[in-house]
Design brief:
Helix content: 10-25%
Bound molecules: zinc ion
CATH architecture of the largest domain: Beta Barrel
Strand order of the largest sheet: 3-4-5-7-6
Number of helices: 1
Number of domains: 2
Strand content: 35-45%
Shape: globular
């Protein structure tokens, strides 16, 4: 067996997104979830495996862009750093009513935009 490579972990993550599932990396031993940037468990050095997340989390931070950096992203648009309820944090765009910016701490739920692009919708 042997630990998964960085590429294998990333491919597995995007494959799960294509199937509509947000996932996170977790120690193959018993340490639990790790940061998305980890490629080995920072606590015990074991390899990582992909686990399905609930999709629920809360807003850790939010920023609204008024400059268009990508032709597919019409301004203004909001990007969130979301802390999943499992612990890891990731960055994705926000979907909100009337383009309001979610407050830090707001509960959000993962949703997929077209082409399996991950976004988070405010639930409270
Ligand atoms: Zn570990």
């Amino acid at each position: 067996m042997g630990n998964k490579t960085s590429r294998e972990l990333e491919e597995a993550f995007y494959q799960s997104l294509n199937e509509g599932v947000v996932s996170y990396f977790s120690c193959t031993d018993l340490c639990g979830p790790v940061d998305y940037t980890a490629r080995l468990c920072p606590k015990c050095g074991s390899g990582l495996e992909l686990k399905a997340a609930s999709g629920r989390g809360h807003v850790h931070s939010a920023v609204t862009y008024h400059t268009q950096y990508n032709e597919n992203m019409k301004t203004p648009y909001t990007v969130l750093m979301v802390e999943l309820e499992e612990g890891p944090r990731l960055i994705a765009s926000a979907i909100s009513e009337n383009n309001s910016v979610p407050e830090v701490g707001s509960e959000v739920m993962a949703t997929m935009k077209a082409d399996s692009v991950l976004a988070f919708k405010t639930v409270r």
